[in-house]
Write a structure and sequence with these properties.
The complex is a heterodimer. By secondary structure, chain A is an all-alpha fold. Chain A is 76% helix and 0% strand. Chain B is rod-shaped. Chain B starts with a helix and ends with a helix. The chains are: A mainly alpha, B mainly alpha. At the A-B interface, helix 1, helix 2, helix 5 and helix 8 of A face helix 1 of B.
């Protein structure tokens, strides 16, 4: 009788743990989904692919949620998964080059249509659009790693250590990639002035 | 000298200011870019997405579809094979018929030829007999006078 009670208690406790874990993950997914999606959107410039990869990222995270030890922040962990999925995606696309799947990337001009809310006057809007377009153009020319580092720094506003944790690179390498990206951006900006 | 120092100071000041200004401008550009990406992302996320869920058919339906497809495929393949066999058989039959006809024609020709030969030979035989008879009739049956004693002996 006592054993049955203990077993019942154990099962109930496990169920409760499971429910709590599910609730935790649901909260995490709800909190960080916009950031993961934003990073992937900026990186791929394709809303559909960004959406798909975000779903894949959350699915993968959910499967491994129990093994997440909390050594890094949840966002860092999620973005690391997203970066790996993105790499896989590009690798698969390269292998499937004979397939007639069209990349639905939004053009730089179209991507620059979304303007910061502060740019209220028409002149400010035109200037902001032009600047944003230039940044998109430069981002397009960056290598995959430089782009990732640049976006994490200037879109997600991460510091070097966080970027290093997210990308799995050491801080020095991150600094080097960021510096090269910045040189390109500066050169492009000067060229346009 | 004093003027040169003043110029240097002014230049360095101007240089620092332009660098700072450039950095500020760049920071402003990055901020605009960040906000633009955020605005785009929020816009995409706030859009209603239509989820198309393909209705999953029950197992029995899928099995029936599979079986029907298999039967259809099998009948198409079998029909093709049977038709091919039939065509081959027809072609063989026609070839056999042709060969038989040719053989018959050859036999007929051979028979006709043989008949003609026979007829010719018969005619030839008659002619030979007639010739021999003529020869016999033409040749004198009487023995020469010198041979008369011998002929009489034989007659005896």
């Amino acid at each position: 009788m006592a054993t049955a009670n203990v077993l019942e208690e154990l099962i109930t406790s496990n169920q409760r743990d499971l429910e709590r874990t599910e609730t935790d993950f649901a909260t995490v997914a709800q909190t960080h989904r916009p950031q993961v999606f934003r990073f992937l959107l900026a990186s791929m410039r394709d809303p559909d692919v960004a959406e798909t990869l975000t779903q894949d990222c959350l699915l993968k995270a959910h499967r491994n949620w129990a093994s997440f030890r909390g050594e890094s922040s949840v966002l860092t962990w999620l973005l690391r998964i997203a970066i790996n999925l993105q790499k896989d995606y590009w690798r698969n696309r390269r292998l499937q080059f004979w397939r007639q799947t069209q990349m639905q990337s939004v053009s730089v001009d179209e991507a620059s249509e979304w303007l910061p809310s502060q740019a209220s006057s028409p002149e400010a809007q035109v200037m902001a659009r032009e600047q944003v377009k230039q940044v998109w153009r430069v981002v397009e020319t960056l290598s995959e790693r430089q782009k990732t580092v640049f976006l994490l720094r200037h879109v997600e506003e991460m510091d070097l250590l966080e970027i290093a944790e997210t990308t799995g690179l050491n801080e020095g390498t991150v600094k080097a990639h960021l510096s090269r990206a910045m040189v390109k951006v500066r050169a492009e900006m000067r060229k346009s002035q | 000298m004093k003027h040169q120092d003043e110029m240097k100071q002014a230049n360095s000041k101007t240089g620092a200011t332009s660098f700072e200004r450039e950095e500020q401008e760049l920071a402003g550009v990055f901020a605009a870019y960040r906000e633009s990406v955020q605005a785009w992302s929020s816009d995409v996320m706030s859009r209603e997405r239509r989820v198309v869920v393909s209705a999953r058919r029950p197992l029995s339906f899928r099995l029936a579809t599979f079986a029907m497809t298999a039967v259809l495929l099998a009948s198409v393949i079998t029909g093709g094979v049977v038709q091919h066999e039939r065509n081959v058989q027809d072609a063989q039959r026609v070839a056999q018929q042709k060969a038989d006809d040719q053989k018959l024609a050859e036999q007929k020709v051979a028979q006709e030829k043989k008949a003609a030969e026979n007829q010719l030979a018969a005619q030839q035989g008659v002619q030979d007999d007639e010739l021999l008879a003529d020869v016999d009739s033409d040749i004198a049956q009487d023995s020469p006078s010198a041979m008369e004693p011998l002929a009489s002996l034989m007659a005896k």
